[in-house]
Every structure is written in structure tokens, then in C-alpha cells.
Amino acid sequence: MRRVAVCPGSFDPVTLGHLDIITRASTLFDKVIVLISTNATKNKASFTATERMMMIADATAHLDNVVIDILDGLLVDYVRRVQAVAIVKGLRAVSDFEYEFQMALTNKVLYEGAETVFLTTSKENMYLSSSVVKQVAYFGGDISPFVPECILDTIQKRLMKEDS
Ligand code: PNS
User: Fold this and answer.
1) How far is the CA of 129 from the CAs of 14, 68, 91, 99, in angstroms?
2) Residues recognised as catalytic
3) What is the pLDDT of residue 50?
4) What does the pLDDT average to over 83-104?
5) In angstroms, what is the span from residue 37 Cα to ligand 1's centroid?
């Protein structure tokens, strides 16, 4: 049986931290679906779902068993439909834990058929988040240590403050 995992997130934009988790998940499962989702509790996204999809496609082009999709609805409904066995999430610090734990338990109540699998972030990416990337880029800082090189310009151009 082919074991499919779903790796959901906002990816607004995708960072080296996300890419690390996606890459490691791709070694553990036969197929990984990176699922671009809308987090209803966050402010309006900086990139459209299609733009986020194109950036992830560029950054994961070298990974044969990774595909990308856009979620419109509940995560568990998608997971059930594609018969994924796991939901893969990255954990950076204790501060991530409570929220992720809550989501994992909720998803398990809604759908029993998949396990949430947490991968601990690499130590280089412990501090990294899309919000940090946005702040640095907005003020014209160098975001090259934080995002995949192939999408650096796209992100920088979009996020930089007009008069920087
Ligand atoms: O990258 P993020 O913002 O931490 O990702 C959170 C995300 C998008 C995975 C979560 O908000 C989600 O799963 N959204 C889809 C809607 C859903 O199923 N919500 C219930 C989860 S408890």
C-alpha cells in the first residue's frame, strides 16, 4: 500500500523551515501532499493560494514524490478523501505545542483514520516563521538565510515597503 501524508500549512510564504519538514517527510512516506490552507485566525495572506502553490512547486521541484494542492474546507475531509495515513506538522518550540496539540486532537475526533506526526524542526530553523520573513523583507532586510533561493526575488519584491 502506498502511504500518503498530507503536510498542511499557510505557507505565506514557504520558508526553509517548511522545506526542511517537507523534505524529511518525503523520505518517510511514499507521497507527500503539501496542502495550502487558509488559517481563519490569521490576517489576510500576503500571497494568493496560487502564488503560494507556484513558490512551493519551485522550491520542491527536485522532490519526485511531493505534490501540491490547495485546501478549500476542512483538513480532515481532504485527508479522508485522499486516504492519507498521516498529517505531518513541524514543531519548533514549546510555544507551538499547545496550538498544535489542540489541532491534532480536534482532527482525530473529526476523523480517526489518520495520525498527526510531529517532526522536530532542525536547530537552524527554530526561530524561523513566515511572519519573521515578512517583517525582515518589509524593511528591506536580507531574507536569503530564511527562504529557498529560487523564490527569493519573488518574495522580496512583493513584501518590501514601497519606499525602501
Ligand atoms: O501554517 P499554519 O497557519 O500553522 O497552518 C494551520 C492550518 C492551515 C494547518 C490549520 O489552520 C488548518 O488545518 N486549517 C484548515 C481548516 C481546518 O481543518 N481547521 C480545523 C483544524 S483543528
Assistant:
1) 9, 20, 11, 15
2) 18, 42, 92, 130
3) 95
4) 93
5) 6
Q: Is residue 26 part of a domain?
A: yes
- Report whether 69 contacts 34 (CB < 8 A): yes
Name the percent of the chain lying above pLDDT 70: 98
Q: Is the pLDDT of residue 59 over 70?
A: yes
Residue 15 inside a domain? The answer is yes
Domain range for 24 is 4-159
**Would 164 be classed as within a structural domain?**
no
pLDDT over 90 at 40, yes or no:
no
pLDDT of residue 164: 54
Give all strands (DSSP E) within the chain, no chain letters. 4-9, 31-36, 66-70, 86-91, 115-120
Distance of CA 116 from the midpoint of ligand 1 (Å): 12
Q: Give the number of domains in the chain.
A: 1
Assess whether pLDDT exceeds 90 at residue 102.
yes
Supply 72's cell numbers: 478549500
Q: What is the CATH number of the domain that holds 130?
A: 3.40.50.620
Q: Which atom of ligand 1 lies nearest, measured to the CA of 40?
A: 11
> Could you identify the atom of ligand 1 that is nearest to the CA of residue 12?
1
- Return the best residue to mutate from 10, 77, 100, 118 for the ligand 1 pocket (most ligand atoms within 8 A of CB): 10
